[in-house]
């Protein structure tokens, strides 16, 4: 029987191997039948399935069905696959999901391109591209080789609180706009109405430095873009694919071949080196002049043919000489919009931060009291000023921390005409005002953003020379930025112009198919991988919003106003008029508990303006993805009689196994995990917990609790929206806990849901809870366990605590836009992890930086205690719960004992620093190590400028040498700091120490 069973297993394995081989063979044959452009459309679909199955292993059926649907409806149709081929590929997708190992085989055997060769990086490439994977750099380089421009763009962001004069200033900066109104209009009404959301004006800078709104052409894009750089790729008489000199029979046979497909395949064709070549091509094209795709191109050829002095064309020249462009972004100042602006703040900008010179810094912003979920009450003008500067620094600096501080902020004082002082004193008063406002930023990097020259304006005097001076200053600063004169592919510029035209036509949210159609209509098209890269770059630049998720990757948001309008639907209460009477109880529930039931959700969408209403489903998907709202999670233990189908819930994950915290083995009980059929909007939570509830949440008496894990944000600043979005992520990750202790009747317990404004409690398993809250710039988390065991070591599940910490970290990184995107650019999060002394619960008291514990091992806690209560804290006592993985590795790596023969107590020699530099050359954390070593930002920037171009290894060596020169600390200190930065991985550290040992022995 055993032999028979073994034979059956062997036959099964052989059958599976044969199926896998057939699948690989099929994919190879299909790919071989396609040109490069076709493979560029097919490969991302195959890779997405294979990589999801191999890297995460949790590809859901919903995602798989979405991929299949997109393939059948879009990709297969575009590529012209017949039904049989389409079925085969869909079958392979499904096999990857069900058969272990097939996805790995496909990646290994189908995609055997040589990816070892590192593409050459052009210094004029955008720094975002330079920090991407080699494959992305190669795609961008390929696009540049087909023609490029050295672009000159300015992105000017005009920010400040409401009614400060932002729109009026913009109207004075842009020639085509105006503040002028009829004389009979009262002075207080002369100013334009407040901006709703964000207004964007795309302008050309003329030779007199005037900013004039760009007039977008309605004709095909290639008519005003086609230049010599493009002519080289057009077919000539030598082109075997497109020989116009052949007989009429050829044209009848090939008359349906689109012009764009013929042009796409001409990468290696001869270039137009003489005027005769050009004329010959022109004559050949004339023979197909009635074809739709050729007709538009022909007009351009006519213009070219009539030029008097035509010159030979060099191979792939850059396109130059175009006017610089400035896009002016007028941000609404109402507090309502503060939670959405960060989508568009980035380092590729120059900012004008406006303040009203007639209001004192301690003046309350009138509307703040009504939006306590977004900003605190008694929000002052100084708070608004600090909020904007902190936001600019936080959201503009986190992505590229190895470059010097960007962007520049120009301070502008408004309402000059209403200042109560002499004309001679107004400039001095303005400088005193801003100096006072900036005092709170002394000794912070934020001051590096501030431009030394300030401007004072009266927006009612549109001919005031100050506006010319301001324009000139903006252009001068832009010319010093890293993105000035960077190289952009012509094909990408064409796509950008397509987007601009769509915006001009009033389009705000478009489908991915619209992007593909725009690409096909351009003379310079891109393949599918390049198109995805283009969208990723545009998203990073803040020009569009495009999220590469199964639900949202089909959409592209062109206009920032759209996402703001969608956000407004759920955080304002302007739906108070003409409500449906039958929904009054739902409105009341929303106002009190921030709960939106489906009928109310439908009413909110239907009552919104048309631009939102027609995309109702997408609005909800975006709000869920951005963690503006979330469906609560619910877990129920399954009995044999339980029915998995539930009309009031949608099953998110069926039969989830509950782990026993002691053995970490599956229990015998199974759980059904569901998403309840309503949404919660955390920023709308109004209820505040009473003092008794707060005390029970922060320090419960009958629970075993961990020390508080603290995410402490830099510069004492954290937008409240960050916590609200983290709370939404928690709502969909864990079930909201309830308080049953107040119950007087056991039969009908009076449960209280533990979710409030700024605080939440979640069930992480049957006997544990996560308590999370925030205060000012710190987010706190504490795990609590219910157990009869009195020993906390046994009652507290360290593995669960560690997993919760990782989940919180992952959500925060996603919220801040910091998920890993590049192997070259290290991300510096705007916060650090701290642990609070187990004996303290007061805000911002007794906090210890986690990395300091890894380096030093023991510290003293005297903050928040009387002198006689001060006590030492060992790393094991505070790290063992939240950082059990790091603690375990530190226990395994006793540096002095494990690597005997290494002298760790001496100052390292230069050759030893070289060994360490080689060991860290592939590290993603090299810049963080410099920060950990205490090297100043300006020094790091100088070292990078001088040595990074040679190699990363050389840069790291000089960074370590700078540390040695200034600190003169022992090698053991350096090793511990390396471990602190790499605390979740010891492989690199072990390899470095082995090399050090060999080096020291060689010297001896």
Automatic annotation (TrEMBL):
Residues 1-23 are annotated as: Disordered. The keyword Chaperone does not apply. Residues 1-21 have a biased composition (Acidic residues). It comes from the Eukaryota. Keywords: ATP-binding, Kinase, Nucleotide-binding, Repeat, Transferase. Its EC number is 2.7.11.1. PROSITE patterns: ROC. Pfam families: COR-A. Gene3D superfamilies: P-loop containing nucleotide triphosphate hydrolases, ROC domain from the Parkinson's disease-associated leucine-rich repeat kinase 2. InterPro entries: COR-A, NOL4/NOL4L, P-loop_NTPase, ROC. It catalyses: L-threonyl-[protein] + ATP = O-phospho-L-threonyl-[protein] + ADP + H(+); L-seryl-[protein] + ATP = O-phospho-L-seryl-[protein] + ADP + H(+). Residues 147-481 form the Roc domain. The keyword Membrane does not apply. PANTHER family: DEATH DOMAIN-CONTAINING PROTEIN (PTHR12449). This is non-specific serine/threonine protein kinase. It comes from Mya arenaria (Soft-shell clam).
């Amino acid at each position: 029987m055993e032999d028979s069973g073994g034979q059956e297993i062997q036959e099964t394995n052989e059958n599976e191997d044969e199926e896998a081989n057939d699948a690989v063979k099929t994919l190879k044959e299909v790919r071989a039948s396609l040109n490069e452009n076709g493979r560029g459309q097919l490969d991302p679909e195959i890779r997405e399935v294979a990589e999801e199955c191999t890297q995460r292993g949790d590809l859901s059926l919903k995602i798989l069905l979405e991929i299949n649907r997109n393939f059948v409806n879009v990709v297969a149709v575009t590529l012209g696959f017949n039904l049989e081929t389409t079925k085969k590929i869909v079958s392979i997708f499904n096999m990857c999901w069900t058969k272990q190992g097939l996805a790995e085989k496909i990646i290994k055997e189908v995609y055997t391109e040589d990816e070892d060769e590192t593409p050459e990086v052009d210094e004029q490439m955008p720094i975002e591209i330079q920090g991407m994977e080699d494959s992305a750099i190669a795609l961008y380089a390929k696009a540049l080789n087909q023609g490029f421009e050295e672009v000159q763009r300015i992105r000017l962001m005009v920010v400040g609180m409401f009614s400060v004069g932002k729109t009026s200033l913009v109207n004075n900066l842009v020639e085509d706009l105006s503040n002028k109104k009829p004389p009979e209009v009262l002075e207080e009404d002369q100013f334009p109405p407040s901006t709703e959301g964000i207004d964007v004006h795309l302008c050309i800078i003329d030779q007199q430095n005037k900013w004039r709104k760009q007039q977008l052409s309605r004709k095909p894009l290639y008519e005003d873009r086609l230049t010599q750089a493009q002519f080289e790729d057009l077919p000539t008489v030598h082109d075997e694919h497109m020989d116009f000199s052949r007989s009429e029979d050829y044209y009848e046979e090939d008359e349906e071949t689109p012009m764009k497909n013929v042009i796409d395949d001409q990468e290696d064709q001869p270039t137009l080196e003489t005027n005769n070549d050009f004329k010959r091509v022109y004559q050949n094209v004339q023979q197909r002049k009635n074809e739709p795709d050729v007709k538009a191109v022909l007009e351009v050829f006519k213009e070219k043919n009539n030029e008097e002095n035509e010159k030979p064309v060099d191979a792939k020249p850059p396109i130059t000489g175009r006017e610089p462009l400035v896009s002016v972004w007028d941000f609404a100042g109402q507090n309502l919009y503060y939670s959405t602006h960060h989508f568009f703040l980035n380092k590729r900008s120059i900012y004008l931060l406006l303040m009203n010179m007639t209001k004192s810094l301690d003046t309350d912003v009138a509307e703040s009291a009504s939006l306590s979920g977004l900003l605190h009450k008694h929000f002052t003008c100084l708070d608004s000023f600090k909020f904007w500067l902190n936001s600019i620094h936080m959201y503009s600096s986190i992505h590229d921390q190895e470059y010097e501080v960007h962007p520049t902020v120009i301070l502008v004082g408004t309402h000059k005409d209403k200042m109560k002082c002499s004309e001679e004193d107004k400039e001095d008063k303005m400088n005193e005002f801003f100096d006072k406002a900036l005092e709170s930023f002394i000794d912070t990097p934020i001051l590096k953003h501030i431009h030394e020259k300030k401007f004072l304006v009266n927006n009612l005097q549109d001919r005031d020379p100050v506006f010319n001076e301001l324009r000139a200053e903006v252009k001068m600063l832009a010319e010093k930025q890293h993105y000035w004169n960077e190289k952009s592919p012509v094909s990408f510029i064409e796509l950008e112009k397509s987007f601009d035209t769509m915006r001009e036509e009033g389009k705000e949210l478009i489908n991915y198919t619209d992007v593909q159609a725009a690409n096909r209509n351009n003379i310079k098209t891109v393949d599918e991988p390049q198109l995805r890269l283009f969208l990723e770059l545009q998203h990073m630049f803040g020009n569009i919003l495009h999220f590469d998720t199964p639900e949202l990757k089909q959409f592209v948001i062109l206009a920032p106003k759209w996402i703001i309008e969608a956000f407004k639907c759920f955080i304002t209460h302007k739906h108070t008029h003409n409500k449906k009477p039958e929904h009054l109880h739902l409105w009341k529930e929303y106002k009190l508990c921030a709960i939106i039931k489906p009928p109310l959700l439908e009413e909110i969408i239907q009552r919104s303006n048309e631009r939102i209403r027609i995309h109702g489903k997408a609005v909800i998907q975006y709000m869920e993805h951005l963690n503006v709202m979330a469906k609560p999670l619910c877990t129920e233990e399954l009995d044999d009689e339980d029915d998995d189908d539930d009309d009031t819930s949608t099953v998110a994950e069926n039969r989830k196994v509950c782990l026993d915290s002691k053995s970490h083995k599956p229990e015998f009980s199974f759980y059904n995990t569901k998403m309840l059929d309503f949404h919660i909007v955390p920023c709308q939570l109004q209820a505040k917990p009473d003092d008794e509830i707060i005390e029970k949440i922060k320090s419960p008496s009958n629970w075993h609790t961990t020390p508080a894990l603290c995410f402490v944000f830099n510069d004492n600043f954290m937008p409240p929206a960050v916590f609200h979005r983290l709370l939404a992520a928690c709502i969909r990750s864990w079930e909201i806990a309830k308080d049953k202790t107040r119950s007087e009747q056991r039969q009908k317990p009076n449960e209280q849901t533990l979710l409030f404004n700024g605080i939440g409690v979640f069930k992480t398993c049957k006997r544990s809870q996560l308590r999370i809250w925030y205060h000012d710039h710190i987010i706190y988390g504490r795990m609590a366990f219910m157990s009869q065991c009195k020993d906390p070591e046994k009652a507290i599940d360290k593995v669960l605590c560690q997993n919760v910490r990782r989940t919180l970290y992952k959500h925060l990184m996603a919220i801040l836009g910091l998920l890993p995107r590049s192997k070259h650019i290290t991300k510096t999060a705007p916060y650090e992890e701290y642990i609070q002394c187990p004996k303290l619960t007061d805000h911002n008291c007794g906090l210890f930086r986690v990395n300091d514990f890894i380096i030093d091992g023991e510290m003293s806690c005297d903050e928040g205690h009387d002198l006689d209560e001060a006590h030492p804290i060992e790393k094991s006592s505070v790290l063992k719960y939240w950082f059990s993985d790091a603690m375990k590795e530190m226990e395994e790596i006793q540096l002095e004992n494990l690597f005997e023969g290494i002298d760790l107590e001496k100052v390292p020699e230069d050759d030893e620093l070289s060994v360490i530099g080689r060991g860290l050359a592939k590290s993603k954390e090299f810049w963080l190590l410099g920060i950990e070593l205490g090297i100043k930002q300006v020094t790091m920037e100088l070292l990078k400028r001088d040595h990074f171009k040679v190699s990363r290894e050389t840069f790291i060596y000089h960074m370590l040498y700078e540390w040695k020169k200034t600190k003169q600390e022992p090698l053991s200190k350096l090793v511990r700091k390396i471990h602190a930065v790499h605390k979740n991985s010891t492989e690199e550290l072990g390899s470095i120490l082995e090399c050090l040992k060999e080096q020291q022995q060689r010297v001896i």
